[in-house]
Amino acid sequence: MEEVRKQYIKYLGAIKPLEEVIPVDRFSETRFSETEILDEVSKFYVKMSKQVTKERTEIYQKLLGVTPRSIKIDKICDRWGSCNTKREITYNYLIVTLPMELIDYIVVHELCHIYHMNHDRSFWRKVGSIMPDYKKRMKMLNSLIYTCTVITVMMGNFHPLSWSRGVVTEELGLWQLLIITVSRQ
């Protein structure tokens, strides 16, 4: 019996079949290795992160009355976003794997750093003025960071592989982090 493989990726908080998000005909198994597919998925995440964070930043910068100097997407592994004193905001390219309510929290959080470069009371009041439920969202985000589990499904059995604080364990590797593969024989 021939093995059938189906890949899924996480996008906007949901697990979606790879072919629904990225044209699957580009990934014939004879032409593309797992590394090449991973590269395409990474490019997709960078492209969509740019688009989504730009759209969400435009909404919230109007509400806050601030404008960042620039918005960048980078492959940072220890945080979802950052804002420096030059008003340059950088987002993690995997931000589009999160649900939109968490993306919005990250965007508001970083925009508020334009006013307050620390996490004092004034900073949190500013965040709360735009997003009254920010504590709930922050708690949700922190739980994802600490307990994120990626599952590889092989022949119907689940094998949980964990990572924490954005650091992938050696045995997990980036392939399993971004793509969940289902194999049936």
Sketch the major β-sheet: 5 strands, mixed
CATH architecture: 2-Layer Sandwich
The unreliable regions are 145-177, 179-185
What is the C-alpha radius of gyration, as a whole number of Å?
A: 18 Å
| Total count of strands | 8
- CATH secondary-structure class: Alpha Beta
Distance between the termini: 6 Å
| Beta-strand content | 15-25%
In round numbers, the mean pLDDT is: 76
Secondary-structure element order, as H and E?
Answer: EEHHEEEHHHEEHE
Fraction of helical residues:
40-55%
Structural commentary:
This protein is an alpha/beta fold. It has a single domain, classed as Zincin-like (2-Layer Sandwich), CATH 3.30.2010. The protein has helices spanning 18-21, 34-64, 100-115, 121-130, 134-147, 173-178, and strands spanning 4-11, 14-17, 70-74, 81-83, 88-92, 149-154, 157-162, 179-184. Strands 2-1-8-6-7 form a five-stranded mixed beta sheet. Strands 3-5-4 form a three-stranded mixed beta sheet, covered by helices on one side. Helix 2 packs across helix 3 and helix 3 packs across helix 4.
Q: Gist?
A:
The chain is an alpha/beta fold. Helices cover 44% and strands 23% of the residues.
Write the layout of secondary structure elements.
Layout: E1 4-11, E2 14-17, H1 18-21, H2 34-64, E3 70-74, E4 81-83, E5 88-92, H3 100-115, H4 121-130, H5 134-147, E6 149-154, E7 157-162, H6 173-178, E8 179-184
Parallel strand pairs: 3-5, 6-8
Antiparallel strand pairs: 1-2, 1-8, 4-5, 6-7
Helix pairs in contact: 2-3, 3-4
